[in-house]
Design a protein that fits this description.
This protein has 134 residues and is mostly helical. The chain is built from 3 helices and no strands. The protein has a domain at 1-33 and 95-134.
Protein backbone atom coordinates (compact mmCIF):
# COMPACT_ATOMS: atom_id res chain seq x y z
CA UNK A 1 0.00 0.00 0.00
CA UNK A 2 1.50 3.28 -1.12
CA UNK A 3 0.52 6.02 1.31
CA UNK A 4 1.61 8.65 -1.21
CA UNK A 5 -1.52 7.92 -3.25
CA UNK A 6 -3.92 8.77 -0.42
CA UNK A 7 -5.24 12.34 -0.48
CA UNK A 8 -4.42 13.29 3.12
CA UNK A 9 -0.86 12.03 2.78
CA UNK A 10 -0.39 13.92 -0.50
CA UNK A 11 -1.49 17.11 1.22
CA UNK A 12 0.74 16.56 4.22
CA UNK A 13 3.70 15.77 1.97
CA UNK A 14 3.10 18.95 -0.03
CA UNK A 15 2.93 20.98 3.18
CA UNK A 16 6.16 19.41 4.43
CA UNK A 17 7.87 20.14 1.09
CA UNK A 18 6.69 23.76 1.31
CA UNK A 19 7.98 24.05 4.89
CA UNK A 20 11.36 22.64 3.80
CA UNK A 21 11.61 25.18 0.98
CA UNK A 22 10.60 27.98 3.33
CA UNK A 23 13.29 26.94 5.80
CA UNK A 24 15.87 27.30 3.01
CA UNK A 25 14.58 30.76 2.05
CA UNK A 26 14.61 31.94 5.66
CA UNK A 27 18.14 30.55 6.12
CA UNK A 28 19.29 32.51 3.06
CA UNK A 29 17.74 35.65 4.54
CA UNK A 30 19.65 35.17 7.78
CA UNK A 31 22.88 34.35 5.95
CA UNK A 32 22.57 37.61 3.98
CA UNK A 33 21.62 39.80 6.93
CA UNK A 34 24.74 41.96 6.41
CA UNK A 35 24.74 41.95 2.60
CA UNK A 36 24.14 45.45 1.21
CA UNK A 37 20.98 45.86 -0.92
CA UNK A 38 19.73 42.36 0.00
CA UNK A 39 15.94 42.14 0.26
CA UNK A 40 14.43 39.49 2.49
CA UNK A 41 12.29 36.88 0.75
CA UNK A 42 9.52 34.54 1.73
CA UNK A 43 7.33 32.01 -0.01
CA UNK A 44 3.67 32.53 -0.81
CA UNK A 45 1.75 31.10 2.12
CA UNK A 46 0.55 27.52 1.82
CA UNK A 47 -3.10 26.83 2.46
CA UNK A 48 -4.88 23.52 2.34
CA UNK A 49 -7.79 25.22 0.57
CA UNK A 50 -5.50 26.16 -2.32
CA UNK A 51 -3.92 22.70 -2.31
CA UNK A 52 -7.33 21.07 -2.52
CA UNK A 53 -8.48 23.38 -5.27
CA UNK A 54 -5.47 22.36 -7.37
CA UNK A 55 -6.69 18.76 -7.41
CA UNK A 56 -10.42 19.31 -7.52
CA UNK A 57 -11.80 21.78 -10.00
CA UNK A 58 -15.46 21.16 -9.27
CA UNK A 59 -18.09 23.81 -9.83
CA UNK A 60 -21.73 23.49 -8.84
CA UNK A 61 -24.15 22.97 -11.71
CA UNK A 62 -27.75 24.11 -11.56
CA UNK A 63 -30.02 21.25 -12.61
CA UNK A 64 -33.23 23.16 -12.04
CA UNK A 65 -34.10 26.77 -12.86
CA UNK A 66 -35.51 27.28 -9.34
CA UNK A 67 -32.18 26.43 -7.67
CA UNK A 68 -30.50 29.33 -5.92
CA UNK A 69 -27.29 30.73 -7.32
CA UNK A 70 -24.18 30.16 -5.27
CA UNK A 71 -23.12 32.88 -2.85
CA UNK A 72 -19.38 32.42 -3.31
CA UNK A 73 -17.73 34.25 -6.15
CA UNK A 74 -14.78 32.99 -8.16
CA UNK A 75 -12.33 34.14 -5.50
CA UNK A 76 -14.07 32.35 -2.67
CA UNK A 77 -14.54 33.91 0.74
CA UNK A 78 -10.88 34.43 1.59
CA UNK A 79 -9.42 37.85 0.91
CA UNK A 80 -5.80 38.74 1.18
CA UNK A 81 -5.08 41.75 3.28
CA UNK A 82 -2.02 43.86 2.87
CA UNK A 83 0.18 43.41 5.91
CA UNK A 84 1.98 46.47 7.15
CA UNK A 85 5.69 45.89 7.62
CA UNK A 86 6.68 47.70 10.83
CA UNK A 87 10.42 47.47 10.13
CA UNK A 88 12.61 49.86 8.25
CA UNK A 89 15.30 49.28 5.68
CA UNK A 90 18.89 49.76 6.83
CA UNK A 91 20.95 52.57 5.28
CA UNK A 92 22.81 50.01 3.14
CA UNK A 93 19.48 48.89 1.59
CA UNK A 94 19.22 45.61 3.48
CA UNK A 95 15.79 44.96 5.01
CA UNK A 96 16.51 41.68 6.84
CA UNK A 97 15.51 41.84 10.51
CA UNK A 98 17.14 38.94 12.34
CA UNK A 99 14.55 38.79 15.13
CA UNK A 100 11.73 38.55 12.60
CA UNK A 101 13.51 35.88 10.58
CA UNK A 102 14.25 33.84 13.70
CA UNK A 103 10.59 34.01 14.76
CA UNK A 104 9.56 32.82 11.30
CA UNK A 105 12.07 29.96 11.46
CA UNK A 106 10.76 28.95 14.86
CA UNK A 107 7.16 28.97 13.62
CA UNK A 108 8.21 27.03 10.54
CA UNK A 109 9.90 24.41 12.72
CA UNK A 110 6.80 24.05 14.91
CA UNK A 111 4.58 23.71 11.84
CA UNK A 112 6.86 21.00 10.43
CA UNK A 113 6.78 19.12 13.72
CA UNK A 114 2.97 19.36 13.82
CA UNK A 115 2.60 17.97 10.30
CA UNK A 116 5.08 15.19 11.11
CA UNK A 117 3.04 14.25 14.18
CA UNK A 118 -0.18 14.25 12.14
CA UNK A 119 1.49 12.01 9.57
CA UNK A 120 2.56 9.57 12.30
CA UNK A 121 -0.96 9.54 13.78
CA UNK A 122 -2.52 8.79 10.39
CA UNK A 123 -0.10 5.92 9.81
CA UNK A 124 -0.84 4.54 13.29
CA UNK A 125 -4.56 4.74 12.60
CA UNK A 126 -4.17 2.82 9.32
CA UNK A 127 -2.01 0.18 11.03
CA UNK A 128 -4.63 -0.18 13.76
CA UNK A 129 -7.39 -0.63 11.19
CA UNK A 130 -5.34 -3.26 9.35
CA UNK A 131 -4.58 -5.17 12.57
CA UNK A 132 -8.20 -5.25 13.73
CA UNK A 133 -9.50 -6.02 10.28
CA UNK A 134 -11.93 -3.21 10.13
Amino acid sequence: MDLGNLGIFKLMSRKMDWLTQRQQVLSQNIANADTPEYKSRDLKSFSFRDALSDNRRLTPVSTNASHLAGTRGPGGMAKEEKVRDPYETAPDGNNVILEDQMMRMSQNSMDYQTITNLYKKQVAMIKSAIRTGG
